[in-house]
Amino acid sequence: MTQHADADTRRAQVASALVTVVAERGLARTTLADVARTAEVSVGLVQRYFRTKDELLKFGIEHVYRRTEERVAAIPVEPPIRDLVVRLMETSLPLTPGRHAEARVWLGFVQASLTDPEMAAVHRAATGRLIDGVRRALEGARHAGEITAGVDAAAEAAALVAFADGLCLHHAATGDGFDASRIAAALRTYVDRLFAP
């Protein structure tokens, strides 16, 4: 393995550990030592790639967004578009234990983005890409006649992403009160109304 590939592997290992620790302890209580222990590496190795906790945290949220975008890229683009939209939105919902952890981390980073311009920029860019992807899918659905011609694809895409974000928030805040099956059902109900004739 090349040195570059090894560095990428180590950074991904540390990012994965960060997701685990932040999901368990929260953003404010996470330390470099916690992350190093979970990754089973030394604090010095973590600091070799991330000089500060802020650098590590920024890389961590980029890692979460990148994993979501990889899931999006793996979705086959095929009709009906309604099903494509459901699968697209499911990529960011906490429907598995791993994605539950990612959602908890995401919520911590969203809070941090309120006061940190770099975190805010990462969040805005990732959210913008998701909204744009949903908008394009809805435009395709409009052209295919799956939704009515009067539907504003840009506005509906932003609303659907906001709805999914709300599902993540309620899942994190209420636990079993908004479990994975209820989240999935709520998403399908929302999309069904959007695609209703």
From TrEMBL:
Species assigned in the record: Actinomadura algeriensis
Pfam families in UniProt: TetR_C_6 (PF13977), TetR_N (PF00440)
Domain HTH tetR-type as annotated: residue spans: 8-68
Keywords: DNA-binding, Repressor, Transcription, Transcription regulation
Protein name: AcrR family transcriptional regulator
DNA-binding span(s): 31-50
Top-rank taxon, per record: Bacteria
Record-linked InterPro entries: BetI_C, Homeodomain-like_sf, HTH-type_TetR-like_transc_reg, HTH_TetR, Tet_transcr_reg_TetR-rel_C_sf
